[in-house]
Amino acid sequence: MRGLINHIDLTVLDPDRSLAFYEAVLGYMGYRRVSAHERGYDFDREAPDGLYTSVGIMRAQGQGRTRRHDRYSPGLHHLAFTAESRSDVDAFHRLLLDIDADVLDPPADYPQYGVGYYAVFFADPDGLKLEYVYWPK
């Protein structure tokens, strides 16, 4: 368990505008919104083995608070979430289409990343690149 990610906070231009997107995306993965506060929202997920993970979406502050995310600037390039199977990736892709999400790359095999690597890449309302991946290791 050492080194597993416990929580991550993502900065967005407007948490209220991004809320429906993240409720759909994170809700599909088993996260539930557990709090709302002046800077944003928190979503928690507890796995059957007791592992806990939290994702927060927080209002951007400081210099970059008015621009879309640039994944090639210093900071986060993208965030990948684990899928249970290839069909799970495909079902998630249908959800992305249903909510009119920005699908960057539809589900496909990516052998350059590893044997069996199958993923869909998409962006949040501020351009943050996200990924849903099945990788049978």
Topology, element by element:
Elements: E1 7-12, H1 15-28, E2 32-37, E3 40-46, E4 52-59, E5 78-82, H2 86-98, E6 102-109, E7 118-123, E8 129-134
Parallel strand pairs: 1-4, 5-8
Antiparallel strand pairs: 2-3, 3-4, 6-7, 7-8
Distance between the termini: 17 Å
Which word captures the global form? globular
Give Rg in angstroms: 15 Å
CATH C-level of the largest domain: Alpha Beta
At CATH's second level, what is the architecture of the largest domain? Roll
**Major sheet details:** 4 strands, mixed
Strand order of the largest sheet: 1-4-3-2
Number of strands: 8
- By DSSP (H or I, 4+ residues per run), the number of helices equals 2
What is the CATH homology-level superfamily of the largest domain? 2,3-Dihydroxybiphenyl 1,2-Dioxygenase, domain 1
Number of domains: 2
What's the multimeric state?
single chain
